[in-house]
Amino acid sequence: MEIKEVTVIEAYKEELASLFQTVVADGASMNYLHPMSDETAISYWNSVLSEHVRLFIGLIDGQIAGTVQLHYSDKENGQHRAEIAKLMTCTKARRQGVARKLLQHAEQAAKQDGKTLLLLDTEKEGPANRLYQSEGYLLFGEVPDFAQDAFGTYLAGNFYYKTIK
């Protein structure tokens, strides 16, 4: 798998929108409800890049197999931290290490940028918990009814951190 940083969204926007819609349709809690319209998905990707967001995609045979974002803090006293966000894998590429490789790549990018603390959240009962724990993320809290899944059911959220000095 080739991992690339996306700095101009246009060439990947349609494929990323389709991936996002598929992940939401599968029930992922990604801050959006099913059905996710084309307009909503495109709008999201049109607005994602900024000076505080780095976007990485994993490509297999030239097709997007997954994506992850690093959200850097814009707070004066939080310049040492980043959030792992929107880690998604297309259904055809699941269970092939795509998410793990993207997560590791994002961690290395954050480290190179001088970040020493990573944060993330995920649904309490979701499969991503195993990945995060196996990669050294430590659970520091759970919030009941933190977010709705794609179908409107309230789910608890798990919150993790990892130091990367």
From TrEMBL:
Entry keyword annotation includes Membrane: no
Presence of the UniProt keyword Transferase in the record: yes
InterPro entries assigned to the protein according to its UniProt record, in alphabetical order: Acyl_CoA_acyltransferase, Bact_Acetyltransf, GNAT_dom
UniProt keyword annotations, A-Z: Acyltransferase, Transferase
Pfam families per UniProt: Acetyltransf_1
Segments traversing the membrane: none
Domain N-acetyltransferase: 1-165
Protein name: N-acetyltransferase domain-containing protein
UniProt organism field: Terribacillus saccharophilus
Lineage start: Bacteria, Bacillati, Bacillota, Bacilli, Bacillales
